[in-house]
Amino acid sequence: MIVFDLHCEAGHRFEGWFGSSTDFDSQCQRGLVTCPECGSGDIAKAPMAPAVPAKGNSACAQLREQPARNIEAPSDGGQTVSNREMSAEVQAAMKHLATVQAKVLEKSRWVGDAFTEQSRAMHYGERDAAPIYGSASLGEAKELIDEGVPVTPLPFPVAPPDEVN
To answer: What is the pTM of this model?
Structure first.
């Protein structure tokens, strides 16, 4: 499964899960993808946050997403990060966040679905503390927070290292 950030012609943003990019295109052509807010069938993929490169891959300074359909790229050559016009300050802040996240992840280890278990083990002294990142459901994250385990969501989604092109 693949999740896409989508938007309609009215600018409503939502996500959809598809078997593949071809599956998304096919469903759109058959009129099966509609905006949950206004019902519009004029749907396009919205620009998504860049994937963070695998540890040690310093050659990938910036990953660029294609601008969404019917949205013009900025005339200054910058990257489109929304389906609505954003100020230069907001765009700069988004780039800064992406850079900071990439630097943090360079010194962290991917633990995948074991994130909740390993975070708890470190918090309770069952293993040495180390910077890790992985995946957790919203419920698991809330449980960790309720227990006082220091965790925080990343500002941008991260693909598992074995799934990065």
So the answer is: 0.47
> Can you tell me whether residue 86 is helix, strand or coil?
coil
Round the CA-based radius of gyration of the chain to a whole number and report it: 18
The DSSP secondary-structure symbol of 30 reads T
CA 164, CA 1: separation in Å to the nearest integer?
A: 15
Local structure of residue 161 (DSSP, 8 states): G
What tokens appear for 28 in the block? Answer: 């759109």
Q: How far is CA 95 from CA 49, 85, 86, in A?
A: 10, 16, 13
DSSP 6: E
Q: Which are the contacts of 134, defined by CB distance < 8 A and separation ≥ 6?
A: 110, 111, 112, 113, 114, 115, 118
- Among 74, 64, 71, CA closest to 45: 71
Q: Which distant-in-sequence residues (6+ apart) come within 8 Å of 120 by Cβ?
A: 126, 144, 147, 149
* Residue 61 burial (CB count, 10 A): 8
**pLDDT tens digits for 74-128?**
455 444 545 667 788 888 888 899 899 988 888 899 999 999 999 999 999 999 9
CB 77 within 8 A of CB 68: no
